[in-house]
Specification:
elongated; 26% strand; single chain
Length: 144
C-alpha cells in the first residue's frame, strides 16, 4: 500500500512556482536566486505530486524523504499495533508507544490516509487475535 502526499499541497507549490516565475520574468532586475526560486518551488511541487509519502506492507512501514534517497523504515512485528491520535501515528509494541516521525495526516492524500487507517485497524484486530491465540495452549482459547 502506498500513501501519497496531498495533491492540494503539491498544486499549491506549483502555483507558487508559476507566480514567482511570472514575477521574476516581469522584473527589470532579477538576481540568480530570484530566477532559481521558481525552479526550486516547481521541483518541490512535482516531488510532492509524484513521490510516495509512506510505503506500507505487512512487515514494515517506510517513510520516504520528499527529496533525495533518505527514508526511515519501521519494522512491524505481528503483535505490533498502529494507533492514531488525531493526525499523528504511533507504533505500539513491547518497548512502548512511539510516534512515527514525519507521518501526519495533513500531509497525506485524504483517500490514501483513510485506506491506511482501515488497513491499520484490520491489522490491529488480526494482531490482537494472534496475541490471544498465542497465549493459550494449542493455539486457541478452548484448547482446540
Amino acid at each position: 500500500m502506498r500513501v501519497r502526499h496531498s495533491r492540494l499541497i503539491g498544486i499549491a507549490w506549483v502555483i507558487a512556482a508559476v507566480v514567482f516565475g511570472v514575477l521574476a520574468f516581469l522584473s527589470d532586475n532579477v538576481s540568480f536566486v530570484g530566477a532559481m526560486t521558481p525552479v526550486a518551488f516547481l521541483a518541490f511541487g512535482i516531488a510532492i505530486l509524484t513521490r510516495p509519502y509512506v510505503i506500507i506492507d505487512e512487515n514494515a512501514m517506510t517513510v520516504k524523504a520528499l527529496i533525495g534517497p533518505a527514508q526511515q523504515t519501521y519494522d512491524l512485528n505481528v503483535a505490533d499495533a498502529i494507533e492514531f491520535d488525531g493526525k499523528r501515528v504511533f507504533l505500539v509494541n513491547d518497548s512502548g508507544r512511539r510516534r512515527l516521525r514525519g507521518v501526519t495526516g495533513w500531509l497525506a492524500n485524504s483517500r490514501d490516509w483513510a485506506a491506511f487507517r482501515v488497513w491499520a485497524e484490520r491489522r490491529n484486530a488480526r494482531s490482537s487475535t494472534a496475541t490471544i491465540d498465542d497465549s493459550h495452549p494449542r493455539g486457541g482459547p478452548h484448547g482446540a
